[in-house]
Amino acid sequence: MAERKDKQKVIGEPMTDEQIKVFLDFPPEDGENADFHVLLKAYRALRAEDFERFVAFFQEQGRDVRATDPEGRTLLEIVRGHGKSEPFVAILERAGG
């Protein structure tokens, strides 16, 4: 007889503040803007609800939500071109991005 799992796997559990704040400390590549780098990393890895909390922590540190990549684009400009990015666009717009 096969053993049954007691708990189902939960996907997308809310992250703790500490887990989200880890994204604030990712070092950039040479020549890359540090603020843009962490924004991009967080955007790629976090769900919209967690990204919104990240942006609040980011701004509390006085960091620049309008930081640009080496081609001069802000994260908001990049995200606008992605499918299903509406929640992220709204978060960045509210933050002044």
Helix and strand content put the structural class at: mainly alpha
Low-confidence segments, given as residue ranges, are 1-10
Total of helices:
5
Spatial extent as radius of gyration:
16 Å
Write the element-wise H/E pattern from the N-terminal end onward: HHHHH
Mean pLDDT: 89
The main pleated sheet reads as: none
Seen as an oligomer or otherwise, the chain set is single chain
What overall geometry do the principal axes of the alpha carbons give? globular
Residues in helices, as a percent range: 40-55%
Percent strand: under 5%
Span from first to last CA? 57 Å
Number of strands: 0
Description:
The structure is a single chain. The protein is mainly alpha-helical. Helix content is 45%, strand content 0%. The chain is built from 5 helices and no strands. The protein has helices spanning 17-21, 34-45, 48-60, 75-79, 86-94. The longest helix is centred in the middle third of the chain and has 13 residues, at 48-60. The protein is globular.
What is the topology?
Blueprint: H1 17-21, H2 34-45, H3 48-60, H4 75-79, H5 86-94
Helix pairs in contact: 3-5
Concise structural overview:
This is PA4642 family protein. The chain has five helices and no strands.
Short key terms for the protein model shown above:
mainly alpha, 5 helices, 45% helix, disordered N terminus, PA4642 family protein, PA4642-like
